[in-house]
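We modelled the chain as a single entity of 334 amino acids. Its sequence is:
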Amino acid sequence: MKAVRIPRVEAEKVRRLAEKTGAKDKNRLIVTRGEFVEIPIYDGYEELFSQYEIIQQENPVFKKKADLLHVLKPLIPENLHHLIPRSYKIVGDIALVKIPHELESFAELIAEKIMEIHPRLKAVWRDFGKEGMLRRPHLQLLSGEGSETLHREFGCVYRLDVTKVMFSPGNLGEKMRLVRLVRNGETIVDMFAGIGYFTIPLAVHTKARRIYSIEINPDSYHYLLENIQLNRAENVITILGDSMKVTPEGVADRVVMGHIFCHEFLQVAICALKPEGGVIHYHESVPEAVIQRPVERVKNAAEKAGRKVEITGFRKVKNYSPGVVHVVVDAKIV
């Protein structure tokens, strides 16, 4: 469990940033140790606090009743304690929790306790993962009612239906990093826009000239259009279709490839760049044993296209599964 460790004099400023961006772990308390303060944060938000020390808390202090493990231990047999979910996602006023099949008979109990911990929630859904290239959620309602919600982060608002489209709060750090990289007047192509995960913060927080936002899933596209209106994003051109076929060529200063299984689209992304070149942000889910694979894929795609490439960044976004990480490669193509 990560925390930002800062001197006391800077604690209030950092606390406000963590609260505003949704980075602060609401299940843990801020603690003071000597002359330093530890502000607990969720995984995936480290980039927001890159100028400070990020630590693994050895003795985190949980809010009363906010630790799901602590709440459930008396209610579930001891031999199953190691399977109790330690974390869950909260999107707007809906919680998504992964529950092992061994705890099948306790699923509704787990959901009830999550609702007790977070009284503002209207529903808890069991998360079985995503299906297919469209990444459709596979969910089961456990408690409460409703699947559409309004999620706010980083000064942006997203409307979505959790049963139809995915949303990953853990990517906020990467969104904010990307915003800082964009220069005024750029043209950006977002090849896998979803409901606007990257498009919306780019439209809200940068002075990009134009953003081409492409999405193949009709449900996601519906919410993309709605979120563009909600955030008053006037510089976005939306395209419904397969990025392999509808991505505009020769227009982009920057291409965002936010789908973690999209290596087959690298040639298309390169073609989307202006003749003088530009930058590609390529995401991939990769086993740590072959951690350099995404970099090699970008280099090979550039070579096939007859273009030169410079890898300007390579970073972990978050853990994807045991032994597998979500990474992003920043590549300058000329």
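As a brief sanity check on the tokenised model: The CA atoms of residues 196 and 224 lie 5 Å apart. Residues 166-333 form a domain with the Rossmann fold fold (CATH 3.40.50.150).
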